[in-house]
Amino acid sequence: MEEKKPGFIRRNFRRLMTLLSTLRIVVTNLLFLVVLGVLFLAFSGGEIPTIPGKGALVLNIQGSLVDQKNYVDPLVRIMGESDPSQYETLLQDVIDAIDYGREDERITTLVLSLDDMMYGGIAKMQELAPALQRFRDSGKKIIAVGDNYLQDQYWLAAQADEIYINPNGAVLIDGYGLYRNYFKQALEKLHIDFHVFRVGEYKSAMEPYIRNDMSTEAKQANQVWLGALWDEYVVGVAERRSFSKADLNQYINQFDQRLADYQGNTSSAAMAAGLIDGIKTRDEINRYLVDVVGAVDEDGNYQGIGFERYLWVKNIELSEAAESARVGVIVAAGNIVDGEQAPGAIGGDTLASLIREARRDATIRAVVLRIDSGGGSAFASEIIRQELLLLKAEGKPLVVSMGGMAASGGYWIAADADEIWALPSTLTGSIGIFGAFPTLDKSLAALGITTDGVGTTNMAGAMRIDRPLQPIAARSIQSILERGYAQFITIVAEGRELPKSEVEGLAKGRVWSGKDAQRLGLVDQLGTLDQAIASAAALAELDAYEKQLIDIPLTPQEQFLRELTGEVELRGLMLAGGIDTRFLKQAQQWLAPFKGALSFANSMNDPQGLYLHCSNCMAP
């Protein structure tokens, strides 16, 4: 039977509704863009930003230096309240701005204004240092100014030609330490049994749940890598300030005596120790910079432009034609989590899809995987590794660049690379595996709640948290862990072309600095991300190439909003509601151990409950 066609009126009514729906979408999007345009003009003072004809590039880093920003809805960022402790600055943006400024005749000076920088991390700052050296080599001066200098702020300031501090300011350096809270007694009082399974005597991630203190093995291992990182910090300062490592350590270890010698005047104590070059009020610093920079704005301040605004305008000015051959750069930052994840975490499926995209793109001739992760899900780590093997099978060189850390699961996905690059202070290794399973039967019993029933097999109900952990389940978990550890050893041995016996000696959950890892064969070269990219291009035999960041695509509206919020972010928001940023910096340091632990706990979704994670790597 022939299907009856809709009548004339019905057909045209449908067409009319489709047209009205299309018009509604178009008009809504136009209004959306108009509103954003108005917001942009309001925030930018009604003018399109320009680079002054003569002035300073101001390195006004805010929040934390990161390889990849956590995803925040840009509209929420515009309309919501700003939390300075959550602000993030892309490391590559800072490096690009410095390199552009070095060759820009309009930029006469680089000013390091670091009061709003809350966390840098020694590895990321070491990656930034060569860019600062290139700027100095151009003959242009770098000057650091600040009210106070915390530990990370001071390391960057030390890379400047001159450092100035407020008369009531201080240089506060306290070294690196790893102190954790231990919950065994608390869990006992709550009648919670925390069953921990691990392979590797130095795999101490779960010690806080089964001990009241740090084990001797963990203390020994942690002291090694903490000492290695602290040595990198001290050397980086001492070489620039022309005093010995012993001088800096003595200043810190005898800080009370130093202050007593100068009647509690922290700025004078820093000056006498050679940590700074001068003590100036804000007005004195401004008048000094007016002379150095050689230009003044309409308000009488030295002429300068913040690096984010400078980079935004500079990218508009530069419209170079793209080369046909490209080196793809994929960033893997955060905890490794199963499934799809937004930036800020490494989703096994998400990262695998980006690697697959690079593999299928004929213009991508080599790939650099930038890792900044302490690991996470064992299953997700293996999904990522399998996709990387497919990339290599296509004949595309794979180079890994390690950021602050690439440990445990982060090393699992790195081991098969053609080359591994790290910073001297990168934390890596932590070759081990663990599982954890809490049971609450005793807690419930204390409340008068019991569990009983029947099952058809020995495994039925064996993994219920309201029952004691059954021996068959415990033995099964340990067996799976031991197989995972053996797999980890094999992956590293084959990927690094090392004997298994040698890898076993380097494993057991131990954490290594990048410098030590290179000496031991776990890392090939020490250097920056840019050096790793150049090496990947050389492996692909590319003479001319461009870098291509491969990341999760944004919708046009999200992209526009991101550009907008990147341009109009107001420094004044750092003081919104009378918040003292110095308190926020200190509070962030206090809460860092809890934040890292909670972040990992929230991401524990491995299908088998198995984790390749370096909890200790969250410290410095």
Automatic annotation (TrEMBL):
Coiled coil stretches, renumbered: none
Domain Peptidase S49: 135-286, 392-542
Record GO terms (molecular function): serine-type peptidase activity
Segments passing through the bilayer: 21-43
Gene Ontology CC terms, in alphabetical order: membrane
Gene Ontology terms: biological process: signal peptide processing
UniProt cross-references to Gene3D superfamilies, sorted A to Z: 2-enoyl-CoA Hydratase, Chain A, domain 1
Keywords: Hydrolase, Membrane, Protease, Serine protease, Transmembrane, Transmembrane helix
Active site, per annotation: 203 (proton donor/acceptor), 408 (nucleophile)
CDD domains: S49_SppA_67K_type, S49_Sppa_N_C
Superkingdom: Bacteria
Compartment list: Membrane
InterPro entries referenced in this protein's UniProt entry, alphabetically: ClpP/crotonase-like_dom_sf, Pept_S49_pIV, Pept_S49_SppA, Peptidase_S49, S49_SppA_67K_type_N, S49_SppA_C
Family, as annotated: Belongs to the peptidase S49 family.
Name assigned to this protein: Signal peptide peptidase SppA
Organism in which the protein naturally occurs: Oceanicoccus sagamiensis
